[in-house]
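If you are new to this repository, start here. Below is one unmodified record pulled from the training split, so you can see the exact layout before writing a loader.
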Amino acid sequence: MKDPLTQRLYFLFGLLVAACILGSLLSPYFLQVSTLGYLLQYVPILGLLGLAQMLVMLSGGPGIDLSIGAIMSLVALAVAGLFGIGTPLLLACLIGVGLGGLLGAVNAMLVCVLKIPSLMATLATFFAYSGLALALTGGSPIGGIPNWFGQLAQGRFLGVPLHMWTVFVPIAVLLHVMLSQTRTGTHIYAAGNDERAAFLSGVRVWRLRFALYCFGGALAGVAAILTVSWFQAARPDAGKGMELLSVTVAVLGGTHIFGGIGRVMGTVLAVLIVTTLQVALQLANIAQAWQLAAIGMLLIGSVVADNAVNARLRAMARRVPA
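And here is the target side for that same chain:
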C-alpha cells in the first residue's frame, strides 16, 4: 500500500492534468507555446512565496505568515528606490533580500518572543507593511529599471523563463534536500509534529521557528526582485492577494496547517495547479470574482483532502505494533 503522502502527489498530478484539460476546453489559446511561457513566468514568484509559507507552517505553532505579500511589495519598492538614488542594482537586490529577512524577523519577534498568535501578529504586520508601501509612494510605481535586468524574468532558455532555471528550481531543490536529508529538516518536522517532544530531544523550537520566519521573509525578498525584473518597475500593490494564494498553495500541496507534514514537491505541483487554473480562466475572459471563487473552492477542497490524509496517517500509526 502506498504512503498517503505519495498518494497525495499522485492526486495533485491528476489535478494538474485536469486543470490543463479544463484550460484547453475553455480557450483555444491555452495550448499555445506562448501560453506555457507566460504561465511559467508567474510560477517562480508565487512558488517562492508558497515555499516560504510551507516552511513556516511545517514547524508548527501553528504558524502562518499573512504579511508575506506585503513584504514582497515593500522590498520591491526598496530595491527600486535604492537604485534610483544611485545604489548599484545588484547591491540594491542584496540589501532587498536582507530587508525581507529583517521584516520576517519582526514577525518572528512578535510570534516567537512576545507569543502573539501568528494569525494576529502577521495580520498586523500585513497592514503595517502594506500601509508603509502605499505611504512611501502615494500608490505610484517606481520605474527606471534598466533593460538588462529585465532579462532575469523576461529572458528564455529552451522556451522556459530564465528565472525558473536560475532561481526557482535551485531553491526548490535545495529546500527539498534540506528537509529530507539534513538534521535541520528533521528538527523542522519534529517541531511541527510534537513541540514538547522535540524540545526534550534537544531541538530549540523557538529559535528554529524564528529562523524560518526570517528565511521566509528573505524568500519574499527574492520574489520581489523577480517582480522588479518582470515589470521593470516596483509596484506598491505587487503582493496584493499573494498571502492568501501562498497559503492555498502550501495547504493544497499537502502541508498540514498545524505543522509536521508537507513536501516541497507537493508545493511545487500546487503552484503549477493554481497558476494553470488562473491562466485558463483569464484566457477564457472569466470575471475576476469567479476566478477568486475558483481559488476559494480549491482551498476548501485542499483542506478536506488534507484532513483525509491525516486521518489515514493516524489510522496507519494505530496499526503499527508497539
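Two things worth knowing about this chain: Strands lie at 156-157, 160-161. The mean pLDDT is 88.
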